[in-house]
Amino acid sequence: MKGIDSSTLTKEAIVAKAKAANVDMPEGYPIDMHKIYVTWALWGFWTNAIMITTFFVAAIMVCIKPKLAAIMGVVNGLGWIISTCLWLTFGAIWRYSYGGSVAAGDKLVRDDNVSDDDWKTTIDAAAVASGYQIKSGKFLAVVFGIVTGILMLMLIAFAVAGCLMCVCGMDADSINKMAANPLEADRDNSDESKPLTMDDGTEQER
115 by DSSP, 3-state: which? Predict the structure, then answer.
């Protein structure tokens, strides 16, 4: 329930908590985050299962109808990309929304004098007694941490490649020449800085 920093096993229990705390029930609440997490997992499973199945079907169809197999491959790849992007986006929203954060145990506070073993026992007991989705929350956090890391590495690689292209030119030969001998590369490009000569019109007429 939005406004309540704890989880319960039933709708009636969380509604009772909200009434006791004088918290109004927002529209769309309470939320069963367990069902949402299960839906997210099934979505990802069936997206990849359909993609793999269609890939093998297209591989068989290559020998029978190559054009149809090519169309199946393009549609399959495009559908997988769109579904995966939506899957990750909605997964991040559901995990780090207010309800997802509470259900994953992010609001649970650990005292300084509690040991690691005692804290693990406490959160395991909270998962059983109050329905906290501790393991699901950690799994989603790891998934989005890996995805974020990959995206950051890709952005850095694109940024470095863009800088190299701007400095050394678009072709690989220029990049290799600059890396091998920067002074020689500058000397080869010195003609580009010379001013253009004016055409008297003879070349244009010819």
Answer: coil
Give domain status of residue 123, yes or no.
Answer: yes
21 assigned to some structural domain? no
CA-CA-CA-CA torsion sign (41, 46, 51, 56): positive
Write out pLDDT tens, residues 80-131.
989 988 998 999 898 888 888 888 888 888 888 888 888 888 888 888 888 8
Residue-range definition of the domain harbouring residue 55: 31-191
Q: Residue 9's closest CA among 32, 29, 26, 37?
A: 32
Torsion of the alpha carbons at 70, 76, 78 and 81, rounded to the nearest 10: -140
Rounded Cα gap, residues 103 and 193, in angstroms: 64
Work out how many domains the chain is built from and give that number: 1
Q: Note whether 130 and 6 are within 8 A (CB).
A: yes
Percent of the residues in the chain that have a pLDDT greater than 90, as a whole number:
9
Which tokens hold the place of 143? 């998934």
CA dihedral sign of residues 147, 153, 159, 165 = negative
Contact 132, 9 (CB under 8 A): no
First to last CA, the chain: 82
